[in-house]
Write a structure and sequence with these properties.
The chain has 20 helices and no strands. It has about 425 residues and is mainly α. α5 runs antiparallel to α9, α7 runs antiparallel to α19 and α11 runs antiparallel to α12. The longest helix has 27 residues.
Length: about 425
């Protein structure tokens, strides 16, 4: 009965989020409160357990990066990059989109996709404003590219960190096994965007001429502040890359970086905090509580157990179901808590595998399904929610269905290519 109640509340909430009839922050707060009052959420553990509650690592990583981006924004560097990108692409919509997607996909495996979107989205909004073109298609394409690119490394996507820790997989393991298929999928995606967004591309010669006449260096309003900010930001990036070696969580690194940025910039704290996407942070907290209730009442585990029982020793079917099942479930339940809940189940499946190759196929199918499922809906991954928050704040709102109709298409394409890759590499 608790499982039915938790699932019912979740589905009703998802309906209101998708329909956008009620503000999504209100929806998740009401749903989270209902689950807590009815005893469906794991009590006070929602505040202290990263596996059965709010993942504060994600919340504080976002907070730290929002503060860092807010201060860097004051230097004018985003205007500089926007003008540079617009001039390099000569205002051609598809070329500009490919450039922004490439930057995003290359950065995501090393910075993680949330951090990358936090940095690229403001540049995108500025360049689109300069060219008088809608920013929504470019932001959507960047998020999809980020989730694809982030799948290639251990630190690129939060589910990979969870999976790597549980399965004992290293950074190099992810790079060797996942980077090849991610590269292929990204190239196919780049080509596919011409079809997906062809109706959205707009070219305004007069605006392009104006932008081409601009001198990007004049956009830098405070060169000295920019130098100081870039030094701090460089240290933060190095910290992200070495977090597994120095055993410091990315969230701590982001918060320390935010503190240093405030110190060296002497920025007004009230102004900087005004740049923080507080509704996005609150939405995440409510969503984590909702998914915690699904895990606590056994809904997610039951789904995983059903998969195991349904396919038994048929490893080909198990791999197929795990990849596509993770893609579908990860699209609706947020792939971070989904990965945390399902990892022990996959570990049991891998332990019962007949050969090491089959065990690897199970793990990589799970990782690819969870990562690419993050593109499925507007709330499927942290980067999606962050991008929609930036879009709404800057006057370029993206609706749930506007994002999701593209996300579902790209997810289906990615999962099909990933399935073929796993089948050819591990099961033949």
């Amino acid at each position: 009965m608790p499982a039915v109640a938790a699932l019912s509340i979740f589905l009703v909430s998802f309906f209101f989020i998708a329909s956008e009839k009620v503000n999504k922050v209100k929806v998740v707060l009401i749903a989270a409160a209902l689950m807590a009052v009815l005893g469906l959420a794991p009590g006070t553990a929602v505040f202290f357990s990263e596996h059965e509650g709010i993942d504060w690592n994600v919340i504080f990583l976002l907070l730290g990066m929002m503060i860092i981006v807010g201060i860097i924004k004051q230097t004018g560097v985003f205007d500089y990059l926007a003008i540079w990108a617009a001039k390099l692409s000569k205002g051609r919509p598809y070329v500009l989109m490919v450039m922004l997607m490439a930057i995003t996909a290359i950065a995501s495996p090393f910075l993680d996709n949330v951090t990358t979107i936090m940095l690229v989205a403001p540049v995108t909004v500025v360049v689109c404003s300069r060219l008088r073109i809608p920013a929504q298609p470019y932001l959507i394409a960047e998020v999809l590219a980020s989730n694809i690119g982030g799948a290639s490394t251990l630190i690129g996507d939060p589910p990979n960190i969870i999976i790597g820790s549980r399965a004992g997989l290293t950074f190099n393991d992810f790079l060797v096994h996942l980077a090849p298929i991610v590269a292929v999928i990204f190239v196919v995606f780049v080509l596919f965007t011409w079809v997906l967004f062809r109706r959205e591309f707009q070219y305004h010669p007069e605006q392009v001429a104006e932008v081409m006449a601009l001198q990007e260096r004049k956009a830098i309003s405070d060169p000295r502040l920019l130098v100081r900010c870039l030094v701090v930001f460089g240290l933060v990036v190095i910290g992200f890359g070495l977090h597994a070696v120095i055993h410091v969580e990315p969230a701590i690194i982001a918060l320390v970086g935010a503190g240093l940025m405030l110190l060296v910039s002497r920025a007004n704290v009230d102004d900087v905090l005004g740049e923080v996407e507080w509704p996005t942070l609150v939405f995440f907290m409510g969503l984590f509580v909702m998914v915690a209730a699904l895990g606590h009442t056994g809904v997610i585990e039951a789904a995983g157990t059903w998969v195991i029982d349904a396919f038994g020793d048929n490893h080909f079917a198990a791999v197929t179901a795990l990849l596509f099942g993770s893609g579908v479930l990860g699209a609706f339940f947020d792939n971070i808590p989904y990965a945390a809940t399902m990892t022990p189940i996959v570990e049991d499946m891998a332990a019962q595998a007949a050969t090491p190759e089959i065990a690897q196929a199970l793990w990589w199918s799970f990782a690819l399904g969870a990562d690419f499922g993050g593109n499925g809906t507007a709330v499927a991954a942290s980067a999606n929610v962050v991008a929609l928050g930036v879009a709404a704040r800057t006057g370029h709102p993206i609706s749930f269905w506007q994002f999701t109709r593209y996300g579902i298409t790209v997810t289906a394409l990615s999962l099909l290519l990933a399935w073929a890759y796993v089948w050819l590499r591990y099961l033949t």
